Amino acid sequence: MADDKNGGLEEAYVFHEMRDEVQRVGEGAIINVLEGRSYSADKAAKWSQQIGEEVVEGLRGTNENFKWVASCTLLQRVGAGVHLSSSSYWDAQKDGSVVLRWENDSIMCILLVFAISL
Amino acid sequence: MDDLGSSEELAFTPEQVESMLYQVITQVIGQSVYDDAKVAQWVDEINDRCMEMLVELTKPFKYTVTTFIMQRKGAGLHSSHSCFWDMATDNIAQANWPNDKHRDQHNNRMYVVVTVFAAAMTK
């Protein structure tokens, strides 16, 4: 009776049921790592890894029905043109992805999260 | 004699896929210099061709292809991938163009990164 801890996240078998949660975890990880920071060549590698790991840890702990991939790209903002496109060959009913963008004066962050059903 | 179900044929081989990714990049970019009007089209074309090529391999995998093109203006760039999947079967193939083996012979003034995430189908 009292098992519905996360509002149904644990029982989700199709991605669109968890899209909001994935977005929330992704945004949380980005803000956690990058808020208040300026681009640093020394630290950017570590930051992008931290964000990716935090997202995957956060999601796999709450739902075991998917394989999870988080791809985080950090760019220094110097006015360079950037284009990113993604396409997927998978189960359109169950699998899904979320793209998150975040920026401040010196950093642009693009985070892609994919969920592939087991 | 012909073991059609051999594990080698069904496995995802990053090296084999990576050389195909570089071929697609050079085919699409060719001698073009970074052009804001055309980049969106190049990105989609590289993505589509890579996906076609992967599907033609007829291996039991689900794929996600990401194509990223950045104008070369001295900006720093870092990218990382964190994956929770089956390390025995699932893998990533990535092409960073240009690099030592695939040089920018035409001063194209851009960086292209194509990443393929391959997750084995479990059913």
Automatic annotation (TrEMBL), chain A:
Pfam families: Tctex-1. GO terms for cellular component: cytoplasm; cytoplasmic dynein complex. GO terms for molecular function: dynein intermediate chain binding. GO terms for biological process: microtubule-based movement. CDD domains: DLC-like_DYNLT1_DYNLT3. InterPro entries: Tctex-1-like, Tctex-1-like_sf. It comes from the Eukaryota. PANTHER family: DYNEIN LIGHT CHAIN TCTEX-TYPE, T-COMPLEX-ASSOCIATED-TESTIS-EXPRESSED 1/ DYNEIN LIGHT CHAIN. This is Dynein light chain. It comes from Phaeomonas parva.
From TrEMBL, chain B:
One of its GO terms (cellular component) is cytoplasm. One of its GO terms (biological process) is microtubule-based movement. Gene3D superfamilies: Tctex-1 (3.30.1140.40). It holds the Pfam family Tctex-1. One of its GO terms (molecular function) is dynein intermediate chain binding. InterPro entries: Tctex-1-like, Tctex-1-like_sf. This is Dynein light chain Tctex-type 1. It comes from Phaeomonas parva.
